């Protein structure tokens, strides 16, 4: 950490800051500029993080120079993490596609979706059994029955299942059915839930919060990993900005940014990211070209009958086109769809 | 809801949309403009909300004309809600001030804080026993012991206690100690938690999420109320924007906006809203002038020793000045500090 | 400036950075932390600002510790600037209110507006003769004729005139009629225009850009001052965020922030800031309570007939109520309306 | 336009709104829902746009259903616009790359840059002669001399020249040297400048404003086109959001969105869009995969000596790699680099 003193900080104020550092077991490295004094703080990261020096007289601001996370960083692990989900790999040279309806609506709808996405080449079936919804009066999901339909779809198609877990109570139940646990955007900083999935042995797909910086997102992954579960994949799904033509603003720069900071694989969800089915196809191509390890896409046998998010769901035909193009783009960046 | 058709939508596409509405038991009111057709949808709100017409051919967009919440709105209840917390009122002609440290750090720190804020005229003691933190390695709170210190502070000062509940598991425990349950910004859309506090008989302080629209915030309050707990106060604490001089952007317009839409009382937290103790005093005055029912302010006996948020905490002296000014501003808008 | 090196920067990379600094006439102050090296840069501000060290191998990021502006800062001038506009003061103990229609629409409308705002106590008449509009097909203002109506209104009422100048070409013309030149939000970084008004002897009202940080806004004021015109007042008018209930998000924290960094007076425009006439009254009170030196408010004899911004304009009656409350709030913070 | 009345609007209020419409020559199409009345407005777009009905009693809000632009839309022109710049085409099946230094710094630097980008396959040389800078004390460009160096580079390499024009005064001068005029992000709503370039016969590259919606951006293009200049290419260069890891958030969804709404070609600038040279390569690939017609990239012979934006400039080697990958991705989406 660097402490920037006010331009008119007194010698006494500077001394008090240095004393505080020394008393806390840290080292101060003082640098007197032409207009102000700057103090470099050297020592234990955790102690530094808790230091309330900005409340001291004469201090203008502090600047962090190290991140608070460890396990998610390239400093901790150089090589890319590859997650094995029952034989399907996420990360590395493979592209992973997770597709299916926004919500599990019925046995028929789910099985039909499963066969469609399997036929087009997806490895994972997605579908929400528990649905967090803005309004308490909106459809909240089939819950346990939805999980059973997902399990049946897996049996019938061999697809892996990824589905959302919305609270600590249901972690065990969802884990009994799913191959991978999804943490939704609204729960990205539900720290109790992160710790709970961190104590399971199930791979986790961690969606980025609507207003989460990359740094906060990586810290959320750190919560999971700090409990012992290292199988975390990140999922970029759009951030909230002033632009309202799209539902969210899909931040594809975050893909390359995450790749340079972290060893964790990263998936892109262009369906939630744009909110418009017409944009899903070009943004799927863009995501893979930009270095993503895979895609999460909403596909519905009949989007105009979907109980939620119909307007951002692809028809089977359009999904099939996406898969073909993704394979071609993947080849350019050295990745392939199995 | 209004359905706006594409400029080149065909008669058949328009007919299919109308048929879909009719088949779902809704009425369609068609209006042919000079360049495009618009369809007004009349019928049950809930059925309309679930309608995926945007996925239908020829549809450009849909526009909601009614909100999804009911109980929080002025249409449901005209007069202002006044919450009684053991004799202290929130809302109406009274100004309520909740003050204290960000986190409960020790028995001494808390009791000292309690005496300070009591002396200056606050009615509530705030202080986190469970602390949601961006990094898993930051101080996470004293948990149950923190609650015990809060209860002791209440006994010694008569102050009411408001403290955060971070998961469903601890709702019962926190309820056993606190007079009012706080839902933090990160949990504003933790719907399981909202429903859980909605099933208690404790008043709830619902902080606005970092990226929550006013509409989403009111829907979150609706989650609590729909479970039977009508004692909900809202708390504006800043939204996330591009401006980085302040920690967040305190959205004071939301106060008057909420007052016009909803009957619920609203509190402003200028400490988190600005992140800088120097801005807390002017923004406290501004909040009350703008119509807020009270304030939540971080006060610490010695901000430079605080374990969290020291830079946004007031000293006892500054807090006392705030209280004096707030009383004067309150008088102008017809409210008083007891 | 501080240069933060990568965790695995080599000694040679560090040496190259230091050499570059030394060769440019700057001093390097090296500080080796436990995990990375930090280099403090000491020397001429302007030279430092142009230094492209972030492109050098081994450099992670740079952090500015001094601002690029000078004349606008409290370091340059401690005491508050008070601008005298033909006897009316902006800043200091006086509250200044600028009111009138969004656009000058006709001689009758303007004169009527002028008498209304004069009667209620405003010192300035506002009204756009040149109107920047999102669409080329919207009403663009009466231009020169509008200026003549403004001048006539001044003669008849004694009000000062503040009106927008939209390009370098019309600076001389507008200056011939107006008492104060307004730079609109869209032109806050139209640097040629800033320099042009900086070469006049007319006071300038500089509106904050829709997406401008406080730092960029102050730098825009610096452009004007660096040309010799020190009579600059800032005007907060809302920033663009995700919230869409209001037209913009009025950032009242910026008032106190600007007051602590700069000596320039600051005015608040709650009409554009909120876009809703119902919010103008509470936000006017809040602005004054938060330390603003005055207000700019849209008032129209009949808002439902306004050619632009009718929905955010006050009726004469509501404006009169605002003036009464503003006077009362002003008294609490030691300011008065003349 | 649709007018949504308040839930408790009176019959008289509804009548007054309808009368206003009728008196203005518009038609009202009234639709009474279960809880509120909605009025569809039919008639002349321009008259509707200026209607201040939101200021009328009983009106809750209005909703636009048609956009204010005409010439930029697909409704006006179905097929893609292809701009011919002295034999080089922008749009259609060709990919256009504009590359070079942020600022023209010297004759040597520019000529060296020109040879580098020519060799790698770019068709345009970019380079600012007039530089809009946040601080008045930063390097502002070589101005006329910079233009002369650009013209010399064109002569020596055959590259087309695109350079920024920052005010109405210099439009003629810049036009005398450049093949294409660039409007920078800060000037996207400098309407006088837009109209001035609209009256030239030079193709225009219109950068998106930092906080501009797609709708506002298209309206800015409409300003240029409405003066008679139909050769407008759009340039996405990142929007301002809360994320601060990148300089801006490159909004690639805007590419596909613009393609579906408008016939104009669109270029992506990943250098300003990300602010980090390491992200330029993956985001260049992503832009082309997402449907962009070309790229604008900062390349500098020695980024660590650049007078501005060194940290986002590519070295000649990295630029060459980008060009190779772009050609491969282009092939997948049916486009080629000449």
From TrEMBL, chains A, B, C, D:
GO biological process, one term: aromatic amino acid family biosynthetic process
Keyword Amino-acid biosynthesis: no
InterPro entries assigned to the protein according to its UniProt record, in alphabetical order: Aldolase_TIM, Class-I_DAHP_synthase, DAHP1/KDSA, DAHP_snth_FXD, DAHP_syn_2
Residue ranges of every copy of the DAHP synthase ferredoxin-like domain listed in the record: 1-67
GO molecular function, one term: transferase activity
Keywords: Transferase
Entry annotated with the keyword Ion transport: no
Name of this protein: 3-deoxy-D-arabinoheptulosonate-7-phosphate synthase
Organism: Propionispora hippei DSM 15287
Organism ancestry: Bacteria, Bacillati, Bacillota, Negativicutes, Selenomonadales
């Amino acid at each position: 950490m660097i402490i920037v003193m006010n331009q008119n900080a007194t010698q006494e104020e500077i001394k008090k800051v240095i004393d505080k550092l020394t008393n806390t077991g840290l080292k101060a490295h003082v640098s007197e500029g032409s207009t102000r004094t700057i103090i470099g703080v050297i020592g234990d990261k955790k102690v530094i993080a808790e230091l309330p020096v900005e409340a001291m007289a004469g201090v203008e601001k502090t600047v962090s120079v190290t991140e608070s996370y460890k396990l998610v960083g390239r400093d901790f692990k150089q090589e890319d993490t590859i997650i094995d989900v029952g034989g399907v790999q996420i990360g590395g040279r493979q592209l992973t596609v997770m597709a299916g309806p926004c919500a599990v609506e019925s046995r028929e709808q789910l099985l039909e979706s499963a066969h469609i996405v399997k036929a087009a080449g997806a490895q994972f079936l997605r579908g929400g059994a528990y649905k967090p919804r803005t309004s308490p009066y909106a459809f909240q999901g089939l819950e346990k029955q939805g999980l059973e339909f997902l399990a049946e779809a897996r049996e019938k198609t061999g697809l892996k299942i990824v589905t959302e877990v919305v609270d600590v109570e249901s972690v065990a139940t969802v884990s009994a059915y799913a191959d991978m646990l999804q943490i939704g955007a609204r729960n990205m900083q539900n720290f109790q839930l992160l710790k709970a999935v961190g104590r399971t042995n199930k791979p986790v797909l961690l969606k980025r919060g609507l207003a989460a910086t990359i740094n906060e997102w990586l810290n959320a992954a750190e919560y999971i990993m700090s409990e012992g579960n290292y199988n975390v994949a990140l999922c970029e799904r759009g951030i909230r900005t002033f632009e309202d033509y799209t539902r969210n603003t899909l931040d594809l720069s975050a893909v390359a940014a995450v790749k340079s900071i972290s060893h964790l694989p990263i998936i892109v969800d262009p369906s939630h990211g744009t909110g418009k089915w017409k944009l899903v196809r070009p943004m799927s191509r863009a995501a893979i070209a930009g270095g993503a390890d895979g895609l999460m896409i909403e596909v519905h046998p009949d989007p105009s009958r979907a109980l939620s998010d119909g307007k951002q769901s692809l028809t089977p035909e359009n999904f099939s086109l996406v898969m073909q193009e993704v394979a071609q783009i993947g080849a350019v960046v050295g990745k392939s769809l199995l």
